Amino acid sequence: MRNILKYMVSCVVAFSLVQCEASENGDGEETLHPQSGETYTPAKAARFIDALGVNTHLGYDFANYKYYEEYVKKNLLDIGIKHIRDNTYTPEVVEKFKDLGQSGIRLLLITDAESAVEKAASLKPMIWGVEGENELDLNKDNTDWVPIAQQQQKDLFTNIKSDERTADLPVVGISLAHIKTSADLVGDLSEWMDYGNAHPYAAGQHPAVHWGNGMTMSEVIEKAKVVCGDKPIITTEAGYHNKIDNPNHPGVSEKAAAIYHVQLPFVYFNEGIYRIYKYEFLDLNPDPDMLDMECHFGLVRADGTPKESFYAIKNLIRILNDDSEDFEVTPISFSIEAPQSISLMKSVLQKSDGSYWIALFRKESVFDLQAKTDVNLSAVPVKVIFDKTCASVKKYVPNDSEEGEEVAFNGNEVEVSVAGKLVLLNVSF
Questions:
Q1: Host H or E run for residue 308
Q2: In angstroms, rounded to a whole number, what is the distance separating the alpha carbons of residues 181 and 343?
Q3: Which of 75, 3, 79 has the alpha carbon at shortest distance from 312?
Q4: pLDDT tens digits, residue range 352-362?
């Protein structure tokens, strides 16, 4: 585990929020403003893809998960996500877990401490790790949830690590629904976990924002560290639903969700999050009147048809897929020119063939929560200036297609338009 943690620390993706100075040209139009060049150590594309996960409920026979072959397995294999999180353990579900494991899918099992070892041992090698019972701070009827949660984490870690059959499995820390207040109550439990935990739902806002009292992702991480210390963090739940009229936890349109669901893993990965489990894979049941938020979190609709988010994530995985992490990344230097009116975020990845993949996206809302309508951001020019001459440049927009298109470049300069959707530049030198 010590070597794994050391490796993870070295794989934090390069990240920046571009701040632009205001200026206008003679016609009153915004001009591009140069930013000082920086050198970035890219993360490996294969590590980024391995950071993508999704929540499932394979034991929900009352919901659409009962259609295992048609809705679950077929679509999981199609989208390409290799990590699931689930809290069910029955003979029937175990067979489904093992079946998915044959296709390289790995499980984070939510379990009680008492039965964790036997369950985990029976699921090897399909199982990736274990996690304690979910969001115990939501148990309002139990005022003693804090000592219960603390003891559960200690028992789970001790039991798993003390049995030779499971000692090599990672143990994920306690999940908290109200991390802003609950983290301080729980306190430091880092001794009894390999990974920290967070549930940073954005609730209709840009993925860089947490819905709980308007916390930023950085603030969420600081609270998570109260519990996990310096251990790497996993977001075991995150994402958007499509019940728009839902004041306490607003949803967004399927179109907006697809844009956010592509940006979200970059935002979290930029912050050093080790893995991101989208909540969840399927809409639980038909709900045409939009009465139940829980029926609209899926990447797949209640009738089994994929949403726009499904195809966008599928495209992202296919674009960035790489079959090797066995190489040394090479730093890259570049600067960016962009209009002062936008907040531009970027991530830098590299594949084993040496090519660089630069994600450019705006920290701006694509859904108006007050008007409950989509916001179509106007495209703006963004120029990337490298420290050496480019050999080839292609542009990909995962929300539209897995196919790329050649981009004209002038020596070491590349200019692209960036609107609401994330743009990936594939650059070779």
A1: helix 308-320
A2: 30
A3: 79
A4: 999 999 999 99
